[in-house]
Amino acid sequence: MISIQGVSMAFGRFQAVDDVSLSVAAGQSLALWGPNGAGKSTIIRCVLGLYRYSGSIRIGGLDVQRHGKEARRLIGYVPQEIGFYDDLRVHEAVRFFGGLKCVAVRDPDSVLDGVGLCGHAGKRIRELSGGMKQRLALAVALLGDPPVLVLDEVTASLDAMGRDELVGLLAQLSQDGRAMLFASHRQDEVHTLADRVAILERGRLQREGSPAELLDASMTASHLKFHAAEVRHA
After folding, report:
1. Which of 9, 118, 173, 200 has its CA 20 to 30 A from that of 206?
2. Residue 216 has pLDDT above 70, yes or no
3. Could you tell me the strand order of the sheet in which 2-11 lies?
């Protein structure tokens, strides 16, 4: 469903992504892993068609740069920073974004029930917790039943409980045949959600494989030894 071939992207003289090739088939989940500045979010924005790049990105066979609008219809996207109008009620937000995506939302409650927000349709968005707002963002991303889900550090601003709840929900969604591409800096999330992990550093793909093969090895504990001088009393 996602094919990234020889993609490079620069901001002026800074090479943000350097000749990266990755693929995600239907029903697979790929995590982008690396420190800040590794290129994770830049790759995601290239997949969304937000940046110009060299190389090729295809979503469901559609070239992102040539057929961006059609390709984006296949993608449900959840960003790290969510921008909702706080005075909207939850069901109004679902209908509003449905209209933007040309998706008729006849029953907002069924949409919200799918992400664990049943009973919250009448609340204003400002009344929701951070985790509930992320669930609402996920509900919006899933409107139209896109075959590809793209997530960019979606749990970064959540507390431990909200993070666990959202990861559990995403784990359920990952079993329904969608292709999932996501960036994360949390090892537990990658182990739970990813079939494969791509380790990036300074815009280059360093290694790719299973989370157990790559992350467990890279997180091997280091030991620091201290030697204290013997104290002699007079």
Report:
1. 173
2. no
3. 14-24, 2-11, 54-59, 62-63
